[in-house]
Design brief:
Elements (H helix, E strand, L loop, with lengths): L19 H11 L5 H8 L1 H9 L3 H7 L16 H4 L12 H6 L2 H126 L4 E3 L6 E6 L2 E6 L7 E3 L2
Antiparallel strand pairs: 1-4, 2-3
Length: about 270
Amino acid sequence: MCTNDSHKMDPKTWAVPKSNTLMRSYFARTGRTPTVAQIRENLGSLIADALFASIPMELRECIGLEPKLKGPSESLWTSPSIQLTGKLKLSVLPSQRHAHAITHNAILEIGQDIEDIVNKLREEELHRKLEEQQKHFDQMLEQQVQSIRKKIIREFFVLSSFKMRELFNQMEADFNEEWKKRETYLLTEAEKERVEGIRLLEEAMKCELDNVTRLHEDKYTLSSSSSSTGRKPKLTICTIRELLNFRINGALYSKTLSKPKTLKYELK
């Protein structure tokens, strides 16, 4: 078993120190930190560049910003015809596809395909613009409809209020006119009933006056006859029935004496 004392190399050099490349590969495998491409994809190129510019130099190597890759010195792809230039023995003969491509009909077909693609894109763009304009016109039309609807509601409310006020004033005028007519009619009927009642009362008083006059005449006659015969007879005057009819507000009220009044006088 070997020990540190017998080993010729320094123990510090046994383990390879973790360089920035190893740290980047470790973080990439574990997924603990995002890559530069992920940062640019999520934040955008402008914000990512501003973020990378604010990182200190000692940390740029940790995240892979430094050192920058040089890239290939030549183009990544070179045409085989260029590579075979000067090597006539190794040149490739044109294939049937290439031969067909350089013919007039093939050029027309390619142009037709390109024209169809352009027309399709133009139609899609036109359709999209028409849809946007239709949506815009629909919104404008809806706004106009809402504005007109609100205006109609306001005008209808004002007009209905004015009409209701006119109708109320007309009803009030008709009611007052009908009230005056009814009042005049009732006053006229009451006046007629008053005149009729006065007439009936005058007739009743006249009848009563006639009865009283007749009573006094009979009393005088009986007094003269009793003085000649020497007797004191009793005298009963015929009954008096009073009937007064009054018409008030179209209803008939009859006031009739329930029992006849009998006037009795005793001659002394």
